[in-house]
Amino acid sequence: GLFVTDYFTRTPRKLSPFRSFASIELFHFHIPEDTVIAVWNLITFKEQGGTFGDQCPDRSITVYFRSGAPSVINPLHTHFPRDTAVPGSFALTLTWTLPNRTTGVFNVTSPLPGDWFLAAHLPKDEGKISVKGLYEECQYLFQPQLIVQRLVNIAVLYPGHVTEQSMAPHNRSCLYKVFVPSYTSRVLVEVLRCRGAEGCPLWLRVRAKAPPLHNSTTLDCREHTPCQLAQDLPFWQHWYYVLVEKHPGVPGTVSFQVTVQLTDCSRPSLARPPFLPSSASMNMPHSFGSAGGLALGDSPPPTSPNDTKHPVPIPVTLHAGERCWPVRPTLRNELDTFSVHFYIFFGPNVSVPPDRPAVFVINLLPVLDSGGVLNLELRLNVSSLCGENVTVFGCLNHGVPLTSSDNTSVTCETESLAGFLLSVNATASLSRLRIPYPQTGSWYLSLRSLCATEHGFEPCTNVTAEVYLRAYLSPCINDCGIYGQCKLLRTNNYLYAACECKAGWNGWGCTDNAEAFSYGFQLLSTLLLCLSNVMFVPPVAIAVRSHYLLEAAVYIFTMFFSTFYHACDQPGIVVFCIMEYDVLQFCDFLGSLMSVWVTVIAMARLQPIVKQASVLYLLGAMLLSMALQMDRHGLWNLLGPSLFALGIMAVAWTARTIRRRHCYPPTWKRWAFYLCPGALIAAAAVLLYAFVETEENYFYIHSIWHLLIAGSVGFLLPPRAKPSRRLGPLPRRKGCGYQLCVNEQEELGLVDPAVASINSICTG
């Protein structure tokens, strides 16, 4: 055959340590039909500060693959919520082969066509809280690339027609495909008139949706005469691929004929006719039990005189179990993103007769509906059982309804199908099923009522069970509960939802309490973070006593908003918010930085130098507000104004030192008992905040941060200068001129005016 190679790539993305599905990176690909091989090239490299991160540690990267919907992963081995079905997926772990780069390859032979999703993440870390911009973090970037090779011009088989084929000695196999429409109960593939050097040295393989593999349904035509391969309950509205493969080492040419028969379950004792009128080719679905036949989607083209295809009528007997029942549609009502209700006509209460199943179809839109959770709920009306021991079984399957020919069977599995089983009876009248990230397409629910006897389940007589049926699509499972938040995430143009848990709770629906915080622990952490702000009361008292009223107002502002911000910022249920979270956070950050600003400006003692020192206070408020609005967690946006204030203080102290010709402040007691202890306490607080704080110790390390910062303010805040009581009012000199008065008490920065002799020197 002729192969065509397609290439797809995605932009590199930064990977994060796994905490929940909201922290993974999701990539969406689309594999075309008739693809024989798909190769994912997984490229991972390190970066640090815009360069290659050769010094970054090697951290393993886990990649998940799934067809049809995102992978439901559980790397932390947490518990899933009750009644949750977990679909499987492929997983691959990448290890580093070079200091800053590694690659991995994942091959899929004959992949299923349609949407494929890749999910990648780093291992869970210790949860260290790092200050943004303090140092260059190691970034692990992941870029997947997809190369597909697909066949073109695959021969199409038409039901009821025979295709002749001669396989040359250098050819190994021949590939065909046939489209299976809805309401098909059986696909029968047969090899006719096979002639070769050693009888019929052929293998016959059949597979749905993609070309067959070595483990697909196989039949050896040497051992079976006639060479017929049947597929019961095939997937509706899909291509079936037929591979005729020659045994290795067979010489010469092998000629054969291949034909396909599709059994129409809506037409008892009839196979699908080879030709249908154009009005039937619309493939209209059944509605409430209409008995009309359904057509094949595509009619065969006109037959040319030299065409090797010609109809061969083959009678097919429809077995009792191959009869299909009417499929009742559902009405789709979209309320919001991933919030869809499926209503049943003349429902939600449905009647399940004793002699036949009730079948319903739920259609999920491609791509749009695969990022949520499909919920199904059955509730049995016990009063409708009339005292009989009736059990209603529900079987949910994707692609085709599963109705077994055995009325006593309670399984939802066949050789090629696997579904989800639900059951309700008088004892357990409620049953639920949740499927996170369901595959899109048609889901079929088959309900049957059976009576329990000593010999197992048997068909009921004259008992019609009534069941309340509810089917809907939701973003998350139970909205993630009280200890989680349902987040709507986006990767390129694909939307999906995931839970982000808090307070130590884990799991897909935040229901795993193995590491959950107790109520007492939550209350203790909240009280520590809030009450530690009371340490600002002494600095407020010192500021008021020293007549620093503006500074005292800033400290009160900081204490108030820090207390209520941490009361609102708690992850558990001990939460109290007086305002919106964003407002409280902004005011808390602004108050903290303004406290540093006004304290440093007060230490600079600019009043004799800059008569309007209040301009600096207003300038600081505006600069800090701008920096917080730009990036509240950026290091230099927050550290820049603080360093600017320290620079002003250093210039003021240097000017006084040069003018006075001795160090300022001049007394060793001021340095030994106030400035040095205050600076050490502030430095310890900064070190704890920047290098020690983690998610586990946050509540007490951050409380210590509050205590140390407030304590350092009490030490660093300068005393207010007081005039000497021994000095009377200075006489005003008459005439033109000016007076320059220097208060040596203010220059010395003394706490008590009695420590040194005070002289006022006036120069005219």
What does this structure look like?
The protein folds into four domains: 2-152, Jelly Rolls; 155-264, Jelly Rolls (Sandwich); 352-474, Jelly Rolls, CATH 2.60.120; 519-716, Up-down Bundle (Rhopdopsin 7-helix transmembrane proteins), CATH 1.20.1070. The chain is 21% helix and 33% strand. Helix 2 (537-545) packs parallel to helix 8 and helix 4 (581-604) runs antiparallel to helix 5. It has 764 residues and is α+β, with helices and mostly antiparallel strands. Residues 273-321, 724-728 and 744-764 have low confidence and may be disordered. The strands form eight sheets. Strands 1, 2, 4, 5, 8 and 10 form a six-stranded antiparallel beta sheet that branches. Strands 21, 25, 27, 28, 30 and 31 form a six-stranded mixed beta sheet that branches. Strands 22, 23, 24, 26, 29 and 32 form a six-stranded antiparallel beta sheet that branches. A hairpin with an 8-residue loop joins strand 15 and strand 16 (217-220). The N and C termini lie far apart (108 Å). Keywords: Cell membrane, Membrane, Transmembrane, Transmembrane helix. Pfam families: DUF3522. This is TMM8B protein.
Question: Which characteristics define this entry?
Answer:
alpha+beta; 9 helices; Jelly Rolls; 36 strands; six-stranded mixed beta sheet
